[in-house]
Amino acid sequence: MVAPSPLLILPRSVLLALWVQHVGAGARPLQRAVDAIQGDDEPHTITSHDDATSFDGHLPELLATWASGPRETAALLPVPGDAAGVPAAVSVAALAAGECVLVSTSAGSFAAIPKVEEFGSDIEPGHFVTWSVHRVPDWRNSIQGVVGSLADSERDLRGALVSATEALAALDVARWRDDAAQAIAQLRADADPGWPVPPGLEGRRLRVLIAAARLRAIVELATADDGGAISLWQADQRSTALREVDRAARRAMSAATARADGGA
Residue 251: in which H helix or E strand, if any? Predict the structure, then answer.
């Protein structure tokens, strides 16, 4: 297996949404999903609210509950000023986390939000993850208008790539740290990110996820330094352009996870 790129991050909520769609009955498929979602984290724990689930436990129990029949999922990646699609009851927590998963089953509609606590050192980092699960109103009718289709996302990503390229061209890369310039060059390459996505994930969905993750990583690098901006106006213009790039990338990731599954 290809090792995941440290530059291309797939949010935990995206992984959870993809695997909830994929996992079926049986201990082995369930454990494969758990291992993929948790990665190097400590075992994920679950805290339920408002009678959202009948237990407070660990990730395998939650996955087994949600995968026991037909379900629909979507991952959202809200930021301040853009929390479209996130149920009002969980918007504060979702904004703090920067992500959430929406799930609909025969038992109702739910939102799951990860709280991540870091421990260890820079050399050996670790993470405790607790998913807070809430019962929410049915979100399915509104989500399509919020995130759009995969076709819309591919078109928007092409436009976002042009904007990102223009914004990066305005930077005086010579003044950047060498590692930042190298990182952007690496992100533009077509290497396999090595994500633990479900086997058989449709090529179009994976392409959208990879393109969106690359753009988000480039935005993060580009906004970490003022580069060669010679005025506050130029810096503001570039920041505005990059925010729109990030918005398109976040919506594309959501579109790639929004799907119904008929169950095992």
Answer: helix 232-257
| CA dist., res. 84 & res. 253, Å (int) | 14
Q: Write the single-letter amino acid at 177.
A: R
Q: What is the pLDDT, as a whole number, of residue 151?
A: 86
Domain check: are 87 and 197 in the same one?
Answer: no
pLDDT surpasses 80 at 216: yes
Residues 47-71 pLDDT 10s: 988 766 655 688 998 998 898 888 9
pLDDT digits (tens, 9 = 90+) for 97-127: 999 999 999 989 999 999 999 998 878 889 9
Q: Is residue 112 part of a domain?
A: yes
Maximum pairwise Cα distance, the chain:
60
Tell me which residue of 136, 53, 146 sits closest to 89, measured CA to CA: 136
For the chain, give the mean pLDDT.
82
* Residue 125: both structure tokens together: 């980092």
5 falls within a domain: no
Token readout for 48 is 């339920």
Q: CA-CA distance, 221 to 180, in Å (whole number)?
A: 7
Same domain, 16 and 139: yes
Distance CA 41, CA 215 (A): 25
Task: Report how far apart, in Å, the C-alpha atoms of 61 and of each of 5, 18, 57, 128, 253 are.
Answer: 29, 17, 7, 18, 26
